[in-house]
Amino acid sequence: MAEAAKKASVKNQGLRQLGKTAPLPASPDDAILERVPNPHPDTAYVARFTAPEFTCLCPVTGQPDFAHFVLDYTPGAWLVESKSFKLYLGSFRNTAAFHEDTTLTIGKAIADLLEPSWLRIGGYWFPRGGIPIDVFWQCGSPPEGIWIPDQGVAPYRGRG
Amino acid sequence: MAEAAKKASVKNQGLRQLGKTAPLPASPDDAILERVPNPHPDTAYVARFTAPEFTCLCPVTGQPDFAHFVLDYTPGAWLVESKSFKLYLGSFRNTAAFHEDTTLTIGKAIADLLEPSWLRIGGYWFPRGGIPIDVFWQCGSPPEGIWIPDQGVAPYRGRG
Amino acid sequence: MAEAAKKASVKNQGLRQLGKTAPLPASPDDAILERVPNPHPDTAYVARFTAPEFTCLCPVTGQPDFAHFVLDYTPGAWLVESKSFKLYLGSFRNTAAFHEDTTLTIGKAIADLLEPSWLRIGGYWFPRGGIPIDVFWQCGSPPEGIWIPDQGVAPYRGRG
Amino acid sequence: MAEAAKKASVKNQGLRQLGKTAPLPASPDDAILERVPNPHPDTAYVARFTAPEFTCLCPVTGQPDFAHFVLDYTPGAWLVESKSFKLYLGSFRNTAAFHEDTTLTIGKAIADLLEPSWLRIGGYWFPRGGIPIDVFWQCGSPPEGIWIPDQGVAPYRGRG
Amino acid sequence: MAEAAKKASVKNQGLRQLGKTAPLPASPDDAILERVPNPHPDTAYVARFTAPEFTCLCPVTGQPDFAHFVLDYTPGAWLVESKSFKLYLGSFRNTAAFHEDTTLTIGKAIADLLEPSWLRIGGYWFPRGGIPIDVFWQCGSPPEGIWIPDQGVAPYRGRG
Amino acid sequence: MAEAAKKASVKNQGLRQLGKTAPLPASPDDAILERVPNPHPDTAYVARFTAPEFTCLCPVTGQPDFAHFVLDYTPGAWLVESKSFKLYLGSFRNTAAFHEDTTLTIGKAIADLLEPSWLRIGGYWFPRGGIPIDVFWQCGSPPEGIWIPDQGVAPYRGRG
Amino acid sequence: MAEAAKKASVKNQGLRQLGKTAPLPASPDDAILERVPNPHPDTAYVARFTAPEFTCLCPVTGQPDFAHFVLDYTPGAWLVESKSFKLYLGSFRNTAAFHEDTTLTIGKAIADLLEPSWLRIGGYWFPRGGIPIDVFWQCGSPPEGIWIPDQGVAPYRGRG
Amino acid sequence: MAEAAKKASVKNQGLRQLGKTAPLPASPDDAILERVPNPHPDTAYVARFTAPEFTCLCPVTGQPDFAHFVLDYTPGAWLVESKSFKLYLGSFRNTAAFHEDTTLTIGKAIADLLEPSWLRIGGYWFPRGGIPIDVFWQCGSPPEGIWIPDQGVAPYRGRG
Amino acid sequence: MAEAAKKASVKNQGLRQLGKTAPLPASPDDAILERVPNPHPDTAYVARFTAPEFTCLCPVTGQPDFAHFVLDYTPGAWLVESKSFKLYLGSFRNTAAFHEDTTLTIGKAIADLLEPSWLRIGGYWFPRGGIPIDVFWQCGSPPEGIWIPDQGVAPYRGRG
Amino acid sequence: MAEAAKKASVKNQGLRQLGKTAPLPASPDDAILERVPNPHPDTAYVARFTAPEFTCLCPVTGQPDFAHFVLDYTPGAWLVESKSFKLYLGSFRNTAAFHEDTTLTIGKAIADLLEPSWLRIGGYWFPRGGIPIDVFWQCGSPPEGIWIPDQGVAPYRGRG
Ligand SMILES: [Ca+2]
Ligand SMILES: [Ca+2]
Ligand SMILES: [Ca+2]
Ligand SMILES: [Ca+2]
Ligand SMILES: [Ca+2]
Ligand SMILES: [Ca+2]
Ligand SMILES: [Ca+2]
Ligand SMILES: [Ca+2]
Ligand SMILES: [Ca+2]
Ligand SMILES: [Ca+2]
Ligand SMILES: [Ca+2]
Ligand SMILES: [Ca+2]
Ligand SMILES: [Ca+2]
Ligand SMILES: [Ca+2]
Ligand SMILES: [Ca+2]
Ligand SMILES: [Ca+2]
């Protein structure tokens, strides 16, 4: 899937989707991740997106999988346009891939689009077989003096 | 299973297991639920046992299932002897049954043993297929003026 | 949608999906809700299913909607077969409907299938426009002496 | 304010605001609360709206006040159209009134619009002078057999 | 133990322990529960004492047991003097009894001392054999129109 | 203290303290509880004040005591003016009284001032001798059909 | 907006707003951020302001946005005067800007006013499109040996 | 046990258990831990498995023990195949060993199978004798620039 | 205030207040902070005092302010005598000062008294104007190899 | 007390208490802390014991004190035998000492017994005079590459 998803990262500055009726893309291939200029390009800071609304399909069983994502990055010249990010996530709805793969694919697509100095993604997947999987990835080096709070997602604890 | 498990309810007052080496019974059939006299038989009150250590087998797949149980009852002439209760729960370790069935079987075995005026059991099962099942059963009528707090077990919430 | 979804409630006792490869149904029309005999038909108790993995589409925007469902019922002759319930929920993946409608449709489909003495469903929808909607429905009368704990889902609180 | 706000309750079924650019109304007088037909008019159920994004002005100091609202009702012929509800709440942005008054005004406007069999509103205001005020109001009688969960908002506790 | 502990309930109004050096009583027999006049004897209200510092001995093993108690009552002519209550609880330090017995003994001693219209006690015992026991008892009838909040003690949940 | 504190309840409608520099009253005797007309006198609703900032003195030791109060009432003709309520609470700063007495005195002063159909107060006192005391009082009868949520204050639990 | 907001940072030591009737400024341009001398200028410490009461407008839709801010800094010669800080935050009420921009503008305005050795701001925005954005910025270097606790704001988790 | 359990780590790439009926192995000796190729072998990231469903036997008493495990590792060439991991954990069901031993045995088996650059395991055991034991182990060195969040499991706190 | 409060730090080893009736000092000037020998003077460790019972006066309005303090230090030759610490905190009851000033004054008084190698204080103030202020200060260098847990006080979050 | 308690650390490998009736030792002098061989002596890992069941006496008043302890260490040749640890803690039941002293005495006794490369103990004491004391101590140096999670005990917060 890595190949297809990367294609989503068209570095398009003439925003095609904002303020328009934007149908859900059929796959990451069809999604258009967009970027907007960072209003504070000379300032090192962190932007965090929390996305508890994510679903894709299991490549083994074809059944739905669900995840909660948290994405942190230090913007350089660009910010991710948030509506296109939402549509990109939605485009995985009928796509099948393993948890580890999907999490890294999403992280890499954003990293490729924005070329931030640093980016990390936490994928917190709903349990299968009684055992949830979390995937944590980061790339680049945070600018010196940056402040990066913990993502603080509650650990899974079964029942009781 | 109901038949076998009920056999466990030998109403034995000469305690066989307390203060001795008591091996884990191989099945509910082999378990001996014991009872002791209620030191306050003329007083209406509630005893609650919380058992987060329970496991049995899935009758379809043979894989382990896990549950968290809370048992409440209003003692009459008898109390359940707590060590025998622990062993009885442990005896399900290699027994297969559906969640609804197991929960009611346990509740009924204790009710049969103690003949309390009232008893309830909450079975909070770990998720399978992303969907946990809880089972709630009670029998009898609580004595007038009794106080029965909520069991207060946290609802399942997936991730995030 | 009510018409289509009800069709899903084929009262099928020869289970078609359990222990087999069961693809995700394309719509509630194509889903087959199944039921199994209640092992304790003479006992009044409550079964609770918690389903944090639900998604459908918004009828106005076509964008994904997400919800967390909790279903409680008092089984009569039948239990819902849990794998078919999971597949039924999954069949809404590409279906569009309003929150109030979807919640009641699901509740009524199960009620129609099982004819329980009592059933309730809580639909806890993710926020749109900053305002989440919850929908609470129940039907029938619980058998006398039944115990029905609160669903206890945490209220939405925005940020901070 | 009660007079002005009530005027907002134009019982308008040709929705004016949904799917259009809808500017924030300048006051409750200018807001148009809209209603849509209830898809399940013969079914008794509860709809809950949670609105943590509310602000108005203090009538004594002119400073901003903030509140978190939870609205529950049992729909009859109508549902509140959720976008118009959001705009109605937003229209209080430059309106001054006491906490008790604002909470009841909002509750009564919705009750007047929808004529539900029952409605309640909880207004949880941010602290002033170290002491937050909560306001709880309900009207009408819930249909028999309805299920109404607690609103469950956390109590204020200062620091520590 | 019931006999001994009751003796503790000397209905002593000339307070012997308040504002003096009061050594820990060696047993409930030696403890002196004291009472003071209720400053609002004509008003129906509830007083709650929360005692997370309690320990006694296990009658089977001689090892220490620990409990968290919450006592609620509606005062009549008398209030329990709080220092004597603390000393009374401390007097169980070297006393052996079963959980159910100890909880009711304490509740009855206070009820005997104060003759309140209503009293309840919740004993929340630390786990033994992985299974904690809670004991809930109340006696008398609360005066009409009284307000009695839930004790709200968190349920035990093992680990995770 | 009951006598002195009641004097505080001057039923003063020409507000003396709002929008002025109001020094902290030296005692409840010197405090002036004020009331304002209820803007919705024909509507049955509940107003809740949460006051985590309260301190007085211990009548035995002269040391500071601290409490967290929650006051609920159903307004009739009057609302309590919130600034005067804050000053009234502050006036106990150098007053000595027992927990039960102080809680009821405050509740009765407000009840006397407002003559509401119903009022309740919960006083949650900080621990002394390891044992905190809570006091719960209500008076009057709530109007039919009123909605009164739980106060939901967390129980004390020592450490760990 | 950066230009306008910076103008707010008039380094005014003759406090204009404290202890007076201070109307809400119409925009950050009209706000006057004020500073007072640090009573411990030779001591390295951290001051934290938590502001859960913030609202501005969305530059795309004109609809209200809400945020929860936490500001930390190590004072040098000056402290921010807290009333002017509150009014400055309130001045954004009718100002439109993107989340990333607003958060940095506020942080930079305070940094410009106070010239602290170190400052950081966390902006925790309410969800839009199901995905909340958090923005984290800091500038300067904390004095050696300073203690800076985590801001500890709970992560967003949708529903359930 | 270390010897036997290690034998489980057959580095088998032709998956024997996925998509087939896989009975619970009788012991770690009989379990087959399997591995699959890492789809992102050139990327440094962390995978976390949370396993709240674990039970084995106490070597002293033969009674069941329960634990909650969290496993983190940085994949190199291989990922652990999650179904085989679940079966491996299940294979301890009738195995007796001390908490410290079991925790390290599991961690080492996975480390031996996957040869990751870094791995850690937290074993959170249910209380025995009122005192739970947690075991924390890690091996190897995390690749530079990796992000490893805290496991965040709640501490045990007894009752109250 | 710094001058006056420091006078409180009489380094008095003949304890004047312990085990005697100690009236509340009228001001920090009148308080006598006392110290006792550290029983483990050659061991580097941390002592933490948590003081949720603190109140003083606002220097601008004269109204009560409230705070929750946590003090950590590494004892050298001396420990703070805990009863004198409680009385010292109580002595601020009628003293007026700004939050930043009071927090540092208390921290410095203890540092001056004990001359510990390291000390820190967190002052968590109740909200004023909707915005609470926290103050964090530390001095000295912790001995090598010391363990200093986070203070972990919950952040303020307004309502909802 | 340090002298007496250290005597408890008899480095006894022939376990005297495990699997036998072991009465509660009368004092730390009489307690026998035992050790067992570490099954993984060549592996650096952490063992954590959580002990919420601890009580001793106050040396000033003779009244009971209560604490919650968490002990972490990195085993070398030995593990502490957990039953002897439980009995050792129980032996303080009638021993009087200051909080700081008791905490360090326990930590040092275990350190002396096991000679671990590193050990730490957190003593979380119940409040006296409204102010709880926590004591944190560690000794030795953790082996390189060890993983030591936070103890995560909730801070005390009084009421509300
Ligand atoms: Ca699962
Ligand atoms: Ca599952
Ligand atoms: Ca969730
Ligand atoms: Ca939203
Ligand atoms: Ca908030
Ligand atoms: Ca305030
Ligand atoms: Ca146990
Ligand atoms: Ca658990
Ligand atoms: Ca205390
Ligand atoms: Ca949203
Ligand atoms: Ca235990
Ligand atoms: Ca506790
Ligand atoms: Ca405020
Ligand atoms: Ca909120
Ligand atoms: Ca205390
Ligand atoms: Ca508090």
What is the radius of gyration of chain A computed over CA atoms, rounded to a whole number of angstroms? 16 Å
Average pLDDT of chain A: 90
Low-confidence stretches of chain A: 1-10
Spatial sequence of strands, sheet with the most strands of chain A? 2-3-5-6
Q: What can you tell me about this protein's structure?
A:
Chains A, B, C, D, E, F, G, H, I, J: Keywords: Cytoplasm, NADP, Oxidoreductase, Queuosine biosynthesis. Chains A, B, C, D, E, F, G, H, I, J: One of its GO terms (biological process) is tRNA queuosine(34) biosynthetic process. Chains A, B, C, D, E, F, G, H, I, J: It is an enzyme of class 1 (oxidoreductase). 10 copies of one chain form a homodecamer. Chain A is an alpha+beta fold and 160 residues long. Chain A has a single domain (2-13, 35-140), classed as GTP Cyclohydrolase I, domain 2 (2-Layer Sandwich), CATH 3.30.1130. The first copy, chain A, contains 3 helices and 6 strands; from the N terminus they run αββββααββ. Chain A has helices at 2-7, 82-90, 99-114, and strands at 35-37, 45-57, 64-74, 78-80, 118-125, 133-140. In chain A, the strands form 2 sheets. A 4-stranded antiparallel sheet of chain A has the order 2-3-5-6, with helices on one face. In chain A, strands 1-4 form a two-stranded antiparallel sheet. The longest helix of chain A has 16 residues, at 99-114. Bound molecules: calcium ion (16 copies). One calcium ion sits between chains C (157-158, 160) and I (158-160).
